[in-house]
Amino acid sequence: MIMGYLKLANYKVLSFDKISSTQTYAHDMIAQGNARDHTAITALAQFAGHGRYRRPWVSHHGNLYVSFIFDSEHRDPRLAYVVAVAIVDTLLSFGISSEIKWPNDILIDGKKVAGVLIEYSGRFVIVGIGINVKSNPTVSEYETTKLENYANVELTDLFQMLTKNLDKWMVCDFELVRDAWMTAATGLNKMAKYRGKNVELIGINDNGALIVRENGEYHLVHGDEISM
Ligand code: BTN
Predict the structure, then answer these.
(1) What's the mean pLDDT in 107-116?
(2) Which of 14, 23, 61, 127 gets mutated to test ligand 1 (max ligand atoms within 8 A of its CB)?
């Protein structure tokens, strides 16, 4: 059941108490022809939240779960960086410094605090964002943390600041996004594993591909799994 419907700046916001997944809801809205640009679906909890590679995203009450729907005629790999930078900027406005692990995992003290799932459907893109505020799950693959360990952050303030920063960074020159991303990125100039090989992370190019170096040769990586 929809709990609330409000207009926030230029967003139409649908808020739920608990649903399966804001991301799934966004997909359904698009499939039913009910979606439009700048729609945000939020939930206080999800019972089937999921992340990249269909990994579960544990979604207890107290954290931020939101999926944004934006117009997008084409896939744009640069969006991953825009979203990451918008989240880092948002956390900074609460006095919290964070880092980005390529392409858009957000870490504090090396522990994951937020994740982003970008999916395309029809003429839209869905940007799903989960930020641990009051609780952080135990995950076997990586360490996690929550904002509450660093500052007192109200969910509504966090959400509003996030919408503001998404709007700000989405209309920015990609040069600026790239600079901000490179400043916040962790692991640059360090070794990482890519498809079982040892590579050095160099940066991102104009089109949003990751540049890696392997045995002196440069390669471009698009949306793949890099482990550091
Ligand atoms: C990841 O790091 O793997 C991405 C996690 C994305 C989680 C968010 S929470 C809101 C939205 N609804 C979902 O089911 N997933 C995304």
Answers:
(1) 97
(2) 23
65 with 130: CB under 8 angstroms? yes
Pocket test for ligand 1, best of 117, 155, 226 (most atoms within 8 A of CB): 117
Average confidence (pLDDT) over 48-53: 94
Range(s) for CATH 3.30.930.10 in the chain? 2-184
- Is the pLDDT at 87 greater than 90? The verdict is yes
Pocket of ligand 1 (CB under 6 A): 21-23, 46, 49-52, 55, 57, 65-67, 105, 115-117, 128-130
CATH 3.20.10.10 holds for 2-184: no
pLDDT at 3 over 80: no
| Residue 197 banded pLDDT, cuts 50, 70, 90 | confident
Q: If you count DSSP H runs as helices and E runs as strands, how many of each does the chain have, helices first?
A: 4, 13
Asked whether residue 7 carries a pLDDT value surpassing 60, the answer given is: no
210-214: strand order across its sheet: 217-221, 210-214, 197-204, 191-194, 226-227
Residue nearest to atom 14 of ligand 1 (CA): 49
Atom of ligand 1 nearest to the CA of 22: 12
With contact defined as beta carbons under 8 Å apart, do 130 and 64 qualify? yes
